[in-house]
Amino acid sequence: MKYTFPILALASCITSAKPENIIKGHVFAWPFTPTKEMQPRGGSTKGTKVILDKKPSKEWSALQEKSLPKIEKDRRAILAMAGSYRVSFDFIETMGFQPDYTPPKPYFSWGTEHIQILENNPKSISLQHTLVMYFKAKDGKEIGPMVMKHWRQDWEYQDTELHTYQGNATWAHTSKSPEQSKGKWSQAVFQVDDSPRYEVLGSWTHIGNMSTWKSNTCARPLPRREFSARKDYNILQGNHEISITPTGWVHIQQNQKIASSTNNQTQVIAQELGVNRYQRISSPSLKAAEDTWKKTSVYWKEVRNAWKQVYKNNQSFSLKPKADGKKLYQHHFEYAAQLEKQNTPIDQAKAKNHAIKTIQKFLISGKNKTNDNTPNKY
Length: 378
Prior knowledge:
This protein is an alpha+beta fold and 378 residues long. It has helices at residues 4-16, 58-63, 70-79, 178-181, 224-227, 288-313, 328-341, 348-362, and strands at residues 51-52, 83-96, 107-121, 124-136, 142-157, 161-167, 170-175, 185-190, 196-207, 210-215, 218-220, 235-245, 248-260, 266-283, 316-319, 363-365.
């Protein structure tokens, strides 16, 4: 005898069950966690109204041209990231690996950001991000624009010389063979003060109208959103995926939060999913980013040149958290602000001297660059 009815009835009960302890609502990745416990932390200020540009961009259209060589398709995908955007930063831990693990609040913030092309060469591209923020005061009055130099990303085709994060505020030169880098692009990401953050190889793939870059696994320091909030891990390790859309681009991260000690004991605390969404805007204007850059770019170029010498001369190096009571970005930002205010041309020799001396205050040199076989720990 077949007993189909009880089985069907059981299935019905499972799909329609509503446990009493579940509060109405749904938290992505944590569907049975009360929504009131998972309200996101992050920025609390209010920005001005943003108007999205919903037309496919000219950069997107250029990327869709037929019969492009693969390297040119890659280049156009990278260049398509330039523009003015509303950017959202969304992170949530999806699993934990400690016995007493409880998911922390997700993180969410957003802002308006301008990305401009600093260098555009056949096999290398540099993109500078600048925050341009307009705030709404309590009385409704608009304040801004407030312009702040943000991060930078440099792309290099078939790169064989990388500087990778080793933990403990230390970076090391790492060589890749031509076979390992063949057809790939490295993405080097730098902090707001142009100090290194991470560098990793990855490949662009183009399937129809979808262009996506996927990275190898790499380590990097704690992000600013976690630096003051978390003390239980010291390395963020993960993979990156960047996809170009008709009206912007999306950066997806799969991260592991790692506690690493000096005796090589490593513990994975949790895994995190991040989605950073860049949506093109037509308003407000973020032209203030380029106006500010015109006044300060001479200095920031000297800062980048100073870092090139650090990479050239050191097999590995570490950075102090502070010098003269200030963080590295504070020294650079204060000097750049002075240059922005002055009405006379920038003295390039003085700018160069200040850039070099400032970085040297923070630099702890490791081995000189005599041996290119330093292993990458992660």
